[in-house]
Amino acid sequence: MTDQYQYQIPPGANREEFIRDNVFVERDRVTNGACTKFPGAWANFDDSWDLDQWKQQYRLVIHNLSKSSIEFDMIGVHASVANTIRRILLSDIPTVAFDQVYIFNNTGVMVDEVLSHRLGLIPIQFDPSLLQDRAPGEAPTDLNTLVFKLNVKCTARPDVPASAPKQQRLVHHHVTAADLEWSPEATQAEFLQGAAAPVIPHKDIVITKLNEGEEVNLVLHAIRGKGSDHAKFSPVGTATYRLMPEIHMLRPVVGDEAVKFQQCFPKGVIELEYDQKTGKHVAKVADARKDTVSREVLRHKEFEDAVTLSRKRDHFIFRVESVGILEPQVLMVEAFKVLRAKAADLKKCLDALNVE
């Protein structure tokens, strides 16, 4: 392949390998964005697919894990694979969410349509494999539907003066997700016991507000679905990835210049090391992962020959935030299960074409 880039390659780096492996970050643009790791693109590289070789290159490293989020690195895959995982997380993992709201009485200020919409977005922690899919127009049964009820009335506390704030004076002034009650139907009380029972994970979600004498009485039906059906079924709040930043020093940056160089990056990216021989500070890359790739350093003329910025083409930093339906680590396992199922379906289709 013809080398068409006038890019400053780091000292000691092989030019062809650097072009193959990196996306270039320049002062006013991003170049070399297209992946060229395919057979015939490079004369000196054999890019034919090899499963065993790919297994040696592929890595998944978890950096942070909490009850609500996970941050991990996926290394050694094409951007299409990384994006497939992201899209599966958003729209292909089955969950359970409120689909129908039957309102018998709503005397509060919030209109029925807005109230129903807010209820539909409340997460439900439940194993979707315990419910069957419910087709459009199909009657609800204990096998395909969960039933919740909300029946509250706002009343005044007799022992609190009328001058007190409403939240102290009124009972059920704020109607929250904690007021939703699961109503087991038919055999559900038997096979949905203990940990299998549906739970509202975020009980402090405010559904509506009521004044004294106002009430809400309704029934909700929850069914199984996917984010591709409606956003309320999506188990993640955000599912994003970015390419791993790389900062390559082309020459030593010392003294006052090093201090200015450090200030061009977010905190923790560049550190200053004291050189006892020269008595000056030297700029060193401490943690390129923290860089936001603002390219501030490239705005300064004196650093044009000092640094090269790039992003690793096959190193993806994922951050996934769960809405509470499934734990983050479970979400990732489910996403890979869906990906394997999609690959198996594609293989069946290809095998059928070969037979014909």
Automatic annotation (TrEMBL):
DNA-directed RNA polymerase RpoA/D/Rpb3-type domain residues: 69-349
Domain of life, per lineage: Eukaryota
GO molecular function terms noted in the UniProt entry: DNA-directed RNA polymerase activity; protein dimerization activity
Keywords: DNA-directed RNA polymerase, Transcription
Pfam families: RNA_pol_A_bac, RNA_pol_L
GO CC terms in record: nuclear DNA-directed RNA polymerase complex; RNA polymerase I complex; RNA polymerase III complex
One GO term of the biological process aspect: DNA-templated transcription
Listed HAMAP family: RNApol_arch_Rpo3
PANTHER family for this protein: DNA-DIRECTED RNA POLYMERASE, DNA-DIRECTED RNA POLYMERASES I AND III SUBUNIT RPAC1
Homology family: Belongs to the archaeal Rpo3/eukaryotic RPB3 RNA polymerase subunit family.
The name this protein goes by in its record: DNA-directed RNA polymerase
Organism: Catenaria anguillulae PL171
